[in-house]
Amino acid sequence: MTSAEKNKQPSLQIPKAIVTTAKLLEKVAPSLLLKFAYKLFITPINYPTPEREKDMIKNSVIETCYIPAFKKKVAVYKYKNPDALKKVLLVHGWSGRGTQLFSIAKEMAKLGYQVISFDGPAHGKSEGKKSTMKEFIQTIQEVDKQYGPFEFVIGHSLGAMAVANALNEGLVVKKAVLISGGDIVTDVIADFVDHLKVDTSYNKKLQDKFEKEYQLKMNDYSVSAVAKNITIPCLIIHDTTDTDVKVEAAYNIHKHLPGSELVITEGLGHRKILGDKTVIQKIISFLN
């Protein structure tokens, strides 16, 4: 198998035992399947921190930040250059960690920036077991209040979606980078149901349950929907072999985001893109 073929494999596959349980519930207890799927959708998987990220942990001051909007604490990483006036905020994706963008953090630190990142709600060292994109947005807003202002913000995957929504809701930065970000929120649900290998009718059922629970319309948070209100320069980066978030999302966001720049890569998948030297150089060139 080539490296490109490997990157076409979903990087966060749902464990087989969970898929088996879902398919069984679909046959014998459909109402329980809906509850099961809903819980899974808002429950991140906390993977062990890989060795490559531990240098960022070692060289960070780790603090806790209380988020009044949902009354929980999140872990915040202050990486190098503690006296720097220039700051950049990094936002990881679902089931990620505040150190996941460590390669980008290192290069930004070399340029004299203090890099701030956080473990999203219910992720890494942060409190909670369940989370939503709305909580990611609220975390960005509170971290900006307590640790900002920031020159730039860089988000990956769900973090990119949260960044776009935070910009729409008033986050002030000079430029933003959106890496491997999703677009239409209901498409994210459809992909989740597809990976769960149950009937597509659960797309709408899960959407309805979520919207009733949180009293919101999910697609109001789609990036292409909020893009028209974003006026700062934005760089969109996505890979053609990304199967976690299809590349079509990037094209649609670019279409609706005025003045944005689009970079399409090949063979890097959903996560390898974060450490690619050419991609990082492109980010630095764009920001500077």
What does this structure look like?
Strands 1-2-4-3-5-6-7-8 form an 8-stranded mixed beta sheet, with helices on both faces. It is globular and about 60 Å long. It is about 40% helix and about 15% strand. The longest helix has 15 residues, at about 135-145. By secondary structure, it is an alpha/beta fold. About 40% of the residues are buried. The N and C termini lie far apart (about 40 Å). This is Alpha/beta hydrolase. InterPro entries: AB_hydrolase (IPR050471), AB_hydrolase_1 (IPR000073), AB_hydrolase_fold (IPR029058), Pept_S33_TAP-like_C (IPR013595). Keywords: Hydrolase. GO terms for molecular function: hydrolase activity.
Global Rg: 18 Å
How would you sum up the global shape? globular
Structural class: alpha/beta
The end-to-end distance, rounded to whole angstroms, is: 38 Å
Order of strands across the biggest sheet?
1-2-4-3-5-6-7-8
Main beta-sheet annotation: 8 strands, mixed
Mean pLDDT: 94
**Number of DSSP strands?**
8
- Number of contiguous helices: 12
Short summary of the structure?
The chain has helices at residues 3-7, 16-28, 30-41, 54-58, 102-110, 133-147, 158-168, 185-196, 201-214, 223-226, 248-256, 277-287, and strands at residues 60-67, 72-79, 87-91, 114-118, 152-156, 175-179, 234-239, 261-265.
